[in-house]
Every structure is written in C-alpha cells, then in structure tokens.
Amino acid sequence: MKNHILIAFSFLISFQVFCQNEIEEKRNLRFPVWITHSKNTDIIGLSLGAFPKEVLKNDTTLTRTFGIRLEASLLAVLSPLMGISPISTNDDRYEYIQQIEPTEIIYGLNLSSGTFGTTKVHGCSSALLIQYLQNMNGISLVGMSNIIEKQNGFSASFLGNEIYKGNGILVGFGNGATYFNGLQLGGVNGIERKGIGLQIGVFNSAKDFRGIQLGLWNENDKRSFPIINWQFKG
C-alpha cells in the first residue's frame, strides 16, 4: 500500500513539473510569413529579418524557421570593416560558444546579405558578403568570407573560409581551420592544430596532419616539399 501511495505521489509531482515546463516554454506558431525578431516563435514557411535580435533587442529567446529565411542585414554593409574575426581563438572559447543557446535555428534555406549572431543552420545558407554562424550543417555559399565555429558539409567562399572545427569540404582563395577533416581546395590552405584529409592549393600547411598535400609548397610536421607532401604517422 505504501509503495502504491509513493508511486502515485511521484507521478503527481512529475506531471506538475512537466505542465509547468510546458507553460514556461510555450511557443508561438506562425504561418506562412513572419519576422525573425519575435520571441519564442516557430515560423513555418517564410521568415523575414534585418538584424540579430540579441544585439539590438536584447532578446535571447529562440526563433526557429522551417522553410526559407530572408535577411536584409543592416550589419552586413559594415561587415567588411571588421578588424578582428569573431572566430574562437582557443578551445575554451569554442566550448563556451557551443554552450550558448542559439537565438535562431534555420531548417531549410537561409538567404541573406550577411548573417550574424548565435545562429545554427541545417540545410543551405548563402550570404552576399560575410556570415558568422555558430553551427552549419549542410551547404554554405558566401560571396566574401565564411566564418563558422562548427561546420559539417560543404563551404565555399570567394575570399575564403574560416572554421574552428570542421568536417567536409572547404573551397575558397584561403581556407583556414583549427581542426579539420576532409578536403581543402584553394590558393592558401591551413590547419593550425589537427587534421585528416587532402589539401590542394598553391601553399599548404598543417599541424598534426594525416593525409596528402598537393601544391607549389607544402608543409607539415614531418617535412616541407614542393608539388606533393604526405604524413601518415605521428
């Protein structure tokens, strides 16, 4: 009898906590068109934005887009004047960025003049100038510079790609990563900490690398060679 009472009591407490969480996390559903600057909103269809809401509205709630997101970013015009890249400079900073809850998640297609903020994209993202993303899973195409903390997939940019941790393919004039597994294709390719795969470019350099380098000049921990270089053991 006591066990039955205890089980029933535990069930009531769990149900109350569940209902309370549902109330606290109640989200707004919008269809077919809405703005990305809304609090706790899921947009199915088309979402429209102009700025990172956490910067100008001090709003850190989550907006999710299921479909197409269009952003005419006002910050994108000034983005080429950035003096310092926002990419993480060490593992502690990277882990801190990854632990921050995103303010926007896009499932589908993201088209912008330049996306900034704590944003994750699952699908395809294309920016006219510069974009900075917390996470990118899929295809990323950018006119000037692609800056991504964590990348999985294909990223291409005219000037280049700057990735902290990535897996997949990087195509651009300059491709730099702290950790990267996959293919780097461009004029200048670099891996600062650790990588596995293939580098094809004019100048290639990599630390703690396992793979092949093809280019005018290639550097790894073992040797520096023109045309072709390799490293398969530590």
Q: Can you describe what's shown?
A:
By secondary structure, the chain is α/β, with parallel strands linked by helices. The chain has two domains: 126 residues, no CATH class; 59 residues, no CATH class. Helices cover 15% and strands 57% of the residues. Strands 1, 2, 3, 4, 5, 6, 7, 8, 9, 10 and 11 form an eleven-stranded mixed sheet that branches. α3 links the parallel β4 and β5. The radius of gyration is 22 Å and the shape is elongated. It starts with a helix and ends with a strand.
Write the layout of secondary structure elements.
Blueprint: H1 2-24, E1 28-30, E2 33-35, E3 41-49, H2 53-56, E4 63-71, H3 91-99, E5 104-112, E6 119-127, E7 130-142, E8 145-157, E9 160-206, E10 209-219, E11 224-231
Parallel strand pairs: 1-3, 2-3, 3-4, 4-5, 5-6, 6-7, 7-8, 8-9, 9-10
Antiparallel strand pairs: 10-11
How many discrete domains?
2
Global outline: elongated
User: H/E element string?
Assistant: HEEEHEHEEEEEEE
Radius of gyration of CA atoms, rounded to a whole number: 22 Å
Provide a count of the helices: 3
- Give the oligomeric state of the chains in this entry, treating copies of one chain as homo and distinct chains as hetero: single chain
Number of strands: 11
What are the low-pLDDT stretches, counting only 5+ consecutive residues below 50?
1-24
Main structural class:
alpha/beta
What helical percentage do the residues reach? 10-25%
Fraction of residues in β-strands: over 45%
Amino- and carboxy-terminal Cα gap: 65 Å
What is the average per-residue confidence, as pLDDT, rounded to a whole number? 88
- Largest sheet entry: 11 strands, mixed
